[in-house]
Structure formats: structure tokens, C-alpha cells
């Protein structure tokens, strides 16, 4: 029997509806949550993301302000701006937009955001709160992934659970959140022996995957492949066997325990498909067509798992909803 799809769009949509209603009630009392995004310059990479944030905040009823600094702002200048916003009672949430200027380390700046104004849960104080079961505000993607699992109603307490990935913003927080729910958690990662990984995954009733393995694989070959794709007469053909191996799903159907809940958190932007001539399917402009895929072989795994998140349409939209929820909750705590 095919897995039940955990629809992140539907679940987050209901959360957005509730937040919109909550903001409408606050507005009647003259109160409005205020989110400020600090950005250096106007990098094209973040422009679409910022525009999306503005629309989402306005739709819910949050005030959104983009505070733009010079594109070459130093760590000191950015931190000074963060401190200014920390001291502004009219600001309830602060986020730091990426990318930052070359040479600027995001970690100390994110640590400078006051814990009670940190909707992304990136301040070390909020990270530490996870140890004590405090997930608001917690790292949005990690919290979103666990919320999607909870939506299925599957038993979590005492259940064999595997988290693949140990990043600071996803893997480690997911592990700590699950431990707080008394799950029996094993964390695997890039340094885990492949045979050990497969054995642990096969035992897991709950599986979280968050490595970005396929994205990394494509990044190792993208420059050479695109050069050959654009001009095969003057550029050497990449090692296609190696390219396909590096871009292959990390988790395949044969690895999964039948009936397991699979939460695929990864967002890999990779070529959609390749023809018999090894040329990738083109987009409308004639370039390599890029699509979003997870770390799991979704189609095949869906035939074995009990529940599974799609990519896209799973953790992604839920992460946005959790960020907005955090903004509203932080604002309410300050009113």
C-alpha cells in the first residue's frame, strides 16, 4: 500500500489561517507584530526570497521592514544595527538575510540577536533551550520537520528513530527535539560507516533525512558539465558515471523499514533528467533544467514507507509557517 503523503502545503496553510485570525484580533487592540530583516546591499540571490517574505507577512498581518546596510558592511556595523534593533521596543523579531559580505561570519551576528527577538531560533540561548524541551523559538526547519511527523499521529515515545545529518540548524536540533519527546534516537552523518547507516535505517520506524547529498554531488560537477553542455566541441565531457553516482538518492526503498515514517528535509536543486546522449533536459532558455528533489528516492520509497513528505511541498512551506508563528508568539510575549 502506498505511503500516506504528509502534505506540508495543507498543514502549513491551516497554520497560516490561524495566525491570520490571531493577528486580526491583535489589530483590534492596536497591536501588530513587527519583523525586521537586516540585509547587506541588494544581492539578486535574496531578492526573490525577500519579496516572498514581504507578501507572506502582509497576508498574515505582520509588519515587515527591510533594513538595508551597505553591501560591504563589516561585522561590527552589522552587529551595531542588530543591537539598535534589540533596543527598539517597536521591533519584535529580527532576522539576518544571507548572503553576508565576503569574510563576515554569520554566527557571532546571529548570536547578537536578542533571544526574545530571534524567530529563527539561531541564538545559542534558544539552541540551548532545546535541551530543556523549549522549542519556541527553535530552528524553524527542525521544528517544522518534527511538526509534520506529529501531524501523522504515529507513536514517538520509545520508538527507534534515525536522523541522517548533524548540521547545526537541522540535524542536531531535530535530534534534541526528538529526545525531548522520548524517542530512541540514533544520529548518522557523512562520517557514518555506510553499512552501519543501512542497518540503523532498516530498524527505524521514524526516519529524518537532512544531508543535501545530491546537491553537493551536483555542485562537484556542475561547472564542468555546464561547460560541456554549452559547447561540447571545445570542452571535455565529464565523468558521467561519477556524476550520476554523486547525484543518486541517499536513501533508497530497500533501505527503509516497511511502514516507516519518512521526513525528507533536504532541498537539492539538481538537473531534472538526462537523455541517452547524457545531455540534460533543457529549460525554455536552452540551459540545464533544474528541479527540487529530496535525499530519498521519493517514488520508490513511497511504495514502502507508511508516511512520507514530498520535496517540494513538505518541510519547505511548513518552515515558513513556523517562522511566522514564532514572530507572532514573540510579539505577543512583548505586548
Short description, anyone?
The protein has 335 residues and is α/β, with parallel strands linked by helices.
In the sheet with the most strands, the strands line up as 1-11-8-7-5-6
Corresponding CATH superfamily of the largest domain: NAD(P)-binding Rossmann-like Domain
Per CATH, what is the topology of the largest domain? Rossmann fold
The amount of beta strand, in percent, is 5-15%
Q: Please describe the biggest sheet, giving its number of strands, its sense, and whether it closes into a barrel.
A: 6 strands, parallel
- List the total number of helices: 12
Shape: globular
Estimate percent helicity: 40-55%
Low-confidence stretches: none
Q: State the end-to-end distance.
A: 50 Å
The CATH C-level class name of the largest domain: Alpha Beta
Task: Provide the gyration radius in Å.
Answer: 21 Å
CATH architecture assignment name of the largest domain: 3-Layer(aba) Sandwich
- How many domains would you count in the coordinates? 2
Secondary-structure element string? EHEHEHEHHHEHEHEHHEEEHEH
Mean pLDDT over the residues? 95
Class inferred from helices and paired strands = alpha/beta
Number of strands: 11
Q: What keywords describe this structure?
A:
Rossmann fold, globular, alpha/beta, 14% strand, 335 residues
